[in-house]
Amino acid sequence: MTKVKKAVIPAAGLGTRFLPATKAMAKEMLPIVDKPTIQFIVEEALNSGIEDILIVTGKAKRPIEDHFDANLELETNLIAKGKNELLKVVEETTDVNLHFIRQSHPKGLGHAVLQAKAFVGDEPFIVMLGDDLMKDTIPLSKQLIQDYEKTHASTIAVMEVPHEETSKYGIIHPEGQVEEGLYNVKNFVEKPSPDQAPSDLAIIGRYLLTPEIFELLENQAPGAGDEIQLTDAIDALNRTQRVFAREFKGKRYDVGDKFGFLKTSIEYGLEHREVKEALEDYLIELGQELLDKKTVDEVPETKEEQ
Ligand code: G1P
Q: Is the pTM of this model over 0.85?
């Protein structure tokens, strides 16, 4: 059996949800406390046993390449000042086999993944979307690899979402479980409205795919949003070979929208060695202030209102 050694991270998106911050900067470089979001994704890949990572980039994405490259000037400076801990932090970012390809005409997620065809060759591989940070005792990509080792089949990570949010995700039509949390799938549907959604199990940005997906992507007609959708090609793949869905039971952080990004920053901050105590005190204080304010606002002002 071929070992899963490669991962693909699509990172060509324009990041319009974070304008103006993303006008001249890659959204993947927005930090959660002190680490760019894409570094969390790369670390999940490495912790899952991935050896080579292809990042599909576009305009304004050069900082991603620079981030994972050595910075001799900075390193020399840190050495001279004896800042060994920081030096270690900086050096860790270069300890990875990264490859880059530009997607010159972004035509959707399916089209971005298609750019990885030559890199992937004839091997199973992982696709990791940068908007989703996953936390669990076993990294989610590794869970998918473990499933692949048993089934030799493509497996897509899914998670239950509120019913009214199905139109934000690819949704599966599950057809029974082969083991706890591993579903057979009848159909994969991209962004169905709640009244059309076959379930509340949403695709959450980690995919283990067999290389046969590329032929399907090459012939995939545009779907939802007039884009070449990965979900549609997976649905086609599921008609020629088994594709499973693995339900993720850990915690998912959506850093792709403003509120999700703020929540992630706070929760990761509460675990960050340098700031966790100060942040906790601050949040308790702020929470109390907000609560007091709310209580005052809610007290009726006049007798008539009582
Ligand atoms: C993409 C996929 C969708 C998936 C989602 C997960 O959508 O097309 O199937 O559920 O990622 O985050 P996007 O968020 O890029 O619109």
A: yes
Q: Give every CB contact of residue 79 below 8 A, 6+ residues apart in sequence.
A: 87
| In-domain check, residue 162 | yes
Confidence of residue 300 (pLDDT cuts 50, 70, 90): low
The domain in which residue 107 lies consists of 6-257
Instruction: Give residue-wise pLDDT tens across range 227-267.
Output: 999 999 999 999 999 999 999 999 999 999 999 999 999 99
Which tokens belong to 31? Answer: 């930090």
User: Domain check: are 51 and 125 in the same one?
Assistant: yes
pLDDT over 90 percentage in the chain: 75
Mutate to test the pocket of ligand 1, among 131, 167, 226, 227 (most ligand atoms within 8 A of CB): 131
Secondary structure letter of residue 205 according to DSSP? E
- 65 and 100 Cβ atoms separated by less than 8 Å: yes
Q: Is 102 exposed, middle or buried (0-12, 13-18, 19+ CB in 10 A)?
A: exposed
| Amino acid identity for residue 67 in this structure | H
**Tokens standing for residue 123:** 């091997």
Enter the tokens of residue 91. 């050096």
Determine which residue's CA is closest to atom 10 belonging to ligand 1: 169
Lining ligand 1 with CB less than 6 A are: 109, 129, 131-132, 169-170, 190, 202-205, 229-231
Q: How far is CA 257 from the centre of its chain?
A: 12
CA-proximal residue: ligand 1, atom 5 (nearest): 169
Contact 71, 27 (CB under 8 A): no
Domain count, the chain: 2
d(CA 27, CA 48): 24
